[in-house]
Amino acid sequence: MRENIWSKRIPTLLGIFLIVIGIAITSYLVKTGAILTSKAGPSETPENIRISNISSTSFTVSYKTAENVIGSVNFGKDKKLGLTALDDRDRQGSLKEHKIHYITVKNLEPSTNYYFSITSGSKDFLQKEGPFIIKTAPAIEGSSLEKTIKGEVILPNGDKPSEAIIYLTSDNSQTISTFAINGSYFLFLNSLKTGSLTSYFIFSNETVFRIFVLGEDSLVSNAKLSVSESEEIPVITLGSDYDFTQGNLPTASQSASAGFPSSAFQVSTTEKTPKINIPKNNQTFTDSQPKFSGTALPNSTVDITIRSLENIKAQVVTDIYGNWNFRPTTALSPGDHTITIVTRDVSGILRTLTQSFTVFASGSQVVESATPSATPVVTLTVTPTLSPTPAPTVMPTTSISPTAPPIATIAPILSPVVPPGNSSAIFLGIFGIGLSVLGFFIFLLSRGASTL
Q: Which residue has the higher pLDDT, 250 or 297?
């Protein structure tokens, strides 16, 4: 009798156990974001960035991405930016994803510096030292010689490319560009200016122009031509280089690619990971109101807690580059302290980081030898006093609780998380769901057997 009871209960208990374990594994992975979150990859990163068509009231930003994404340009007269320009093909309707992006920034003022960043997909991209900067041309009277160049580009299989940009330049001239529509394009040389943008470029029949074509699937072409030829350029097949200065018949040329200037822009994403830059772990301060700093996502909220005899809580917002800083409005007592920040990363997961630091009493001096393993020695001096630094730009709310004991040393704490898309996370997720399903079936079978 007893054996019969246990033979019925064991499968039931096993099924329940597997269900609980499976749910626990799946819940953990969902909570940490390992299954449901994803990070944008290099497919969004702008490549081959070029600025062309600089005039007194506009300029064009063009680039390519590995995958189809929505692109735009944020611009303004200062680093706060504030204005947005869409792709030229998106001005009349809804936003569309492209691999080749062509964005004209209009309604600008002559001889004025403008800052801009590129929004590609879900990220903002700057130069490593900050926003891109461009100066518009001065207003110029008159116009250059009337001349229009037209042509056609095709793919190696003879089809017309869905996207292609044609750039043109010459020695001592600026670069102008146009977007090919169904493979056909027009370049108006009457708008061409000198490289300094102070006057129109004067060309002759002997002037040699260089053309660079940026097409889909990383196909590019280079060509050389002179204006003494027909206004219509022979067909250019993407992936091949040509020299048309010898006549209208296309001639394969390896030297054609050497003349066109390459893109000099290197970009970095404003997407920054949560980090405490100051203090370093176990850093010492003689200032009782040290300035703390770090990084997080741009325009994101960072919760700050300082634990010591004075418990201080504050909240700051990062700037457009993802930098934050904080300086307590109340002096910290001498001794050991910790600073903790809580903020979200690019996956939307809350990250918690903690650093330890020490504040020495006013009038103390820290003496350290040159060896990295030396121990700080505190010596008293008679005259030095430290003046408080100016008040912080961020005015946090401060709450003080004098009863909390100081904490000596706490190592940095980072919430463990499996990276999104990690293969082990996917396996664990499938394994957890499988356990739940298996446990459920065992439970049903055991319940069915018990009714027999």
A: 297
Are 383 and 435 within one domain? no
Residue 6 host element (H or E): helix 2-32
pTM for the full predicted model: 0.56
Tokens of 224: 């050389």
Residues 225 and 332 in one domain: no
Q: Which residues contact 19 (CB under 8 A, 6 or more apart)?
A: 435, 436, 439, 440, 443
Q: Over 50: is that where the pLDDT of 367 sits?
A: no
The reply to whether 233 and 306 lie within a common domain is no
Residue 245 carries which side chain, given as an amino acid letter? T
Give the chain's radius of gyration (CA, Å).
Answer: 32
In the block, residue with structure tokens 């969004």: 44
Kindly state whether residues 246 and 288 are assigned to the same domain.
Answer: no
Please report, for the domain that includes residue 193, its CATH number: 2.60.40.10
DSSP assignments along 383-452, one per residue: S---PPPPPPSS-------TTSPP-----------PPTT-HHHHHHHHHHHHHHHHHHHHHHHHHHHHT-
CA 421 to chain centre: 19
In a domain, 266, yes or no: no
Q: How far apart are CA 402 and CA 409, in angstroms?
A: 19
Encode burial over 200-237: b for 16+ CB neighbours within 10 A, e otherwise. bbebeeebbbbbbbbbeeebbbbbbbbbebeeebbebb
Full domain range(s) for residue 240: 43-259
Q: Which amino acid is at 350?
A: L
Quickly tell me which residue has 């893109």 as its tokens.
263
Which segment of 38-52, 80-94, 400-414 scores lowest on mean pLDDT? 400-414
Question: Which uninterrupted H or E stretch holds 98?
Answer: strand 98-105
The count of structural domains within the chain is 3
What pLDDT is recorded for position 298? 77
Q: What is the rounded CA–CA span in Å between residue 155 and residue 216?
A: 9
Which of 238, 259, 280 is the last residue before a domain boundary?
A: 259
